[in-house]
Amino acid sequence: MSLYCGPYSQFIERSCVISQIPNSESAFQISRKYATHPHLAGSNADFEDAKTLLSLFQNEFHIRPPHKEPVFPAGSKESRDATLGLTSKHASSHQKKRPTAWIDVYYPILNTPLNRSLSIVNDQGVVEWEADLEEDGDVRDPEANKYRTSVPAWHGLSKDGDIIGELIYANYGNQEVFFMKTVFFEVGLTPFFFFF
User: Fold this and answer.
1) CA distance linking residue 178 with residue 172, whole number of Å
2) How far apart, in whole angstroms, are the C-alpha atoms of residue 177 and residue 158?
3) What are 59's strand-pairing partners?
4) Phi-psi bin for 10: left (phi > 0), alpha (psi -120 to 50), beta?
């Protein structure tokens, strides 16, 4: 594949090349490669993904892998030395001439559910409806279908317990609907997922 960006300076030419690298097909392929399996933060799969990306960086940037795998506890002397080695002030003459890559290991605090349910109960406490919280998975997407129950649905970092309140229809649940329900119908709402 050849690429022509016009008769510009080296900087403009490099910028042109870089701007043409990501495209919808390459983004799709990368997404399929790195996001088609469960990799919950702090899991073994997450660590394996980090090692895969380390290998990618080593290959793409021609970084010679060291004898010992460069995996350091975050904040350790090895991690600090690797980070400080990125700047010319602290870099050795060997580091100044070559790119480097390593993995810092963090220990994220992420709760996962023991039990979870979503039910609508009547005034007598009898369940009228219970949600199926398992993801269906699309049979046309083999990986999504295969791993559909690997990471359960839950509201991360939320407190355990029951939430009781009136059931109110909110259509798509956008900001305007919540505003209308709150102001015009004098209903107090606490949305759990509110993204704008």
Assistant:
1) 10
2) 24
3) none
4) alpha
d(CA 36, CA 3): 31
pTM as predicted: 0.61
Euclidean distance between CA atoms 148 and 166, whole angstroms: 31
Question: What is the dihedral sign for C-alpha 146, 149, 150, 152?
Answer: positive
Using DSSP, state whether 111 is helix, strand or coil: coil
pLDDT of residue 4: 40
How far apart are the C-alpha atoms of 32 and 22, rounded to whole Å?
Answer: 15
Structure confidence at residue 139 (pLDDT): 80
Q: Which residue has the tokens 């030395």?
A: 81
pLDDT in tens, 2-22: 334 444 455 566 666 666 677
Q: How far apart are CA 183 and CA 141, in angstroms?
A: 43
Supply 110's token pair.
């992420």
Torsion, Cα 27 31 32 35, to 10 degrees, reads 180
Beta strand segments in the chain, E: 71-73, 103-105, 119-121, 127-130
